[in-house]
Amino acid sequence: MSVAVDEAALTSVDLPPTPAATTAHLDNNAECAIPTTSSPVYTTSPLFYFTNVTFRVGNTIFRVPRHGFEVPGTVFETMFSLPPSADDAGVAEGSNDEHPIVLDGVEESLFTGFLGALYPCVKSMDYDDWVGALYLSTMWEFNEVRERAIDAISPMLAEKNTVEVVLLAKQYRILNWLRDGCIRLVDQPSLSIDELRTPLMLDWETTTRVFYVRSLPMDVQPTLEHRRSCAINTFGAGIRCSCSPRIDRSACSRWRFVNEVFKTEFSVMCPNADHVDPPPALDNSGSAISKKNKNKKK
């Protein structure tokens, strides 16, 4: 069976365009192409765009917002302003886990407590945490953190050993703690030397003054001058004046005698100082020894 072929129909079939023809078609329509949109430009918040800093304490790596350590006048402000060293290939110290700021001689527990006070709401803080915060904030001159630690520790001291309170006050130069601790020792119904030496050892100077004040008669009629000064001093410290005839005068006498007998020790405390020297170490007798005193002994 034969099939007739229409040659005219075959020659009229549309064939796909050649590559060259397609390219020419695209070139002719280039001007009609939709323009691409540029990426949007964003600005960083001047308040809430934090840079992190990495520390190594012992074998533990810490990474926290750097702004907490950018305290004017501290060693960290100076540290952050230094250019990267050539040994680190231009990488700033503290910028990552491989190039942390190494805090030699700092215990991890103390640093954890300090960070808890520096960045509130991250962890719940107990007494030891706050003491760690107090230690490092005093050493590094973070005065706001120091005041925060003092405010947090103060109500906890009522449950602590009185000798511990006195030693803590001496180490960190906190006048109210030292005065309150001395008054507590004077007020105790009975007190032995062993209680001031075990398990914590109070220095002999403070021990002698405590027993001396305990030996003084407390029910002494105050003078008019004392009534006036007592009203000013005790009210200013948030303590009720006991010079009124309606109130037992022994409480006021204790306050007065403690301030007089411990005047030398109270004078070296720093209740409102903007600058506080690093906490001195305690010797075997429990006495705070500063570096200056050590140098004098040498």
User: Residue share in helices?
Assistant: 40-55%
What is the 3D shape?
Answer: elongated
Structural class: mainly alpha
Average residue-wise pLDDT:
79
Please provide the ordered H/E string of secondary-structure elements. Answer: HHEEHEHHHHHHHHHHEEH
Number of strands: 5
Oligomer: single chain
The strand line-up of the biggest sheet is: 2-1-3
**Helical stretch count?**
14
**Main pleated-sheet profile:** 3 strands, mixed
- How large, in whole angstroms, is the Cα Rg? 37 Å
Distance between the termini: 129 Å
Tell me the number of structural domains: 2
Strand content: 5-15%
Walkthrough of the structure:
The strands form 2 sheets. Strands 2-1-3 form a 3-stranded mixed beta sheet, with no helix packed on it. A two-stranded antiparallel ribbon has the order 4-5. The chain folds into 2 domains: 49-159, 2-Layer Sandwich (Potassium Channel Kv1.1, Chain A); 161-293, no CATH class. It is built from 14 helices and 5 strands. Helix 10 (204-214) packs antiparallel against helix 12. By secondary structure, the chain is mainly α.
